[in-house]
Specification:
With about 250 residues, the protein is α+β, with helices and mostly antiparallel strands. It is built from 4 helices and 15 strands. The protein has a 5-stranded antiparallel β-sheet with strand order 8-7-9-14-15. Strands 1, 2, 4 and 5 form a 4-stranded antiparallel β-sheet that branches. The structure holds magnesium ion.
């Protein structure tokens, strides 16, 4: 069931989103070569907790991290680890969701560590552009499929691969709510968008195949050919007019 939020509830989602966005901004300021993903995770957790929130991912289905931190061919759900040391040229997808007063906000960004390859630059650029193509389609009266189709069409026209096994979602009191928000599909299909819906649009894009593999830790999802992958996400609210990006800081 899709839960449409009233003005008061939207404010609560917005506050959680701002906390998640600030944590992601801090991540961008602190990430560097030589740091372990566990250290980055600690910085994120401490920031969220200090600001009165809880990391939504910590303990979620047993996940041992305050963020998902996925390096290079890792697409999503990377488990922070002391053994995983970032190095120059890595791309690092960091997915942060925060729970503030019982409401959730969720965002992700793929960061560059030092100077990255041209291939990586292009993958990051296109994945982020896909996110904004999806957001542009999030208009009242449109359907979820219009978002999905906008993301897929842009991605495929640029020669990259949409991962279909994992998708975006609604968000609110629950970290994952209806509706599903796939990054692929037909325009004009799926639930209709109405003002007050809060959804996470999160293109997950691979360099050389749409296939992914699950590592033996049962969490980390990697590009099946071992090539680079990227993930960008915003939480948005559908309004009477243009969508509002709740995880965008002013
Ligand atoms: Mg999400």
């Amino acid at each position: 069931m899709i839960i449409v939020k009233n003005a008061t509830e939207l404010q609560k989602v917005k506050r959680a989103c701002e906390l998640a966005a600030k944590a992601l901004k801090l991540t961008g300021e602190r990430i560097c070569a030589g740091m372990s993903t566990r250290e980055l995770d600690r910085i994120i957790r401490e920031f969220i907790v200090k600001n009165g929130g809880k990391p939504s991912s910590l303990g979620y289905r047993g996940f041992k991290g305050s963020a998902c931190i996925s390096v290079n061919e890792e697409l999503i759900h990377g488990i922070p680890s002391k053994k995983k040391i970032l190095k120059d040229g890595d791309i690092v997808s960091v997915d942060i969701a925060a729970n503030l007063d019982g409401w959730h906000g969720d965002n992700a960004y793929t960061f560059k560590v030092g100077k990255v390859s041209e291939k990586a630059e292009r993958l990051l650029q296109i994945t982020e552009e896909c996110l904004y193509e999806g957001i542009k389609a999030a208009l009242p009266g449109n359907r979820i499929g219009d978002i999905s189709n906008a993301v897929q069409t842009y991605c495929e026209n640029k020669g990259f691969y949409i991962v279909k096994k994992y998708i975006g979602h609604g968000i609110g009191r629950d970290f994952h709510e209806d509706p599903d928000v796939p990054n692929f599909g037909k325009a004009g299909k799926g639930p209709r968008l109405v003002p007050g819906m809060t959804i996470c649009i999160e293109p997950m894009i691979n360099s050389t195949t749409e296939e992914v593999k699950l590592l033996s830790d049962n969490w980390t999802v990697v590009e099946a050919n071992g090539n680079l992958s990227a993930h960008f996400e915003h939480t948005i609210a559908i309004t009477e007019g243009l969508p509002v990006i709740l995880t965008k800081l002013n």
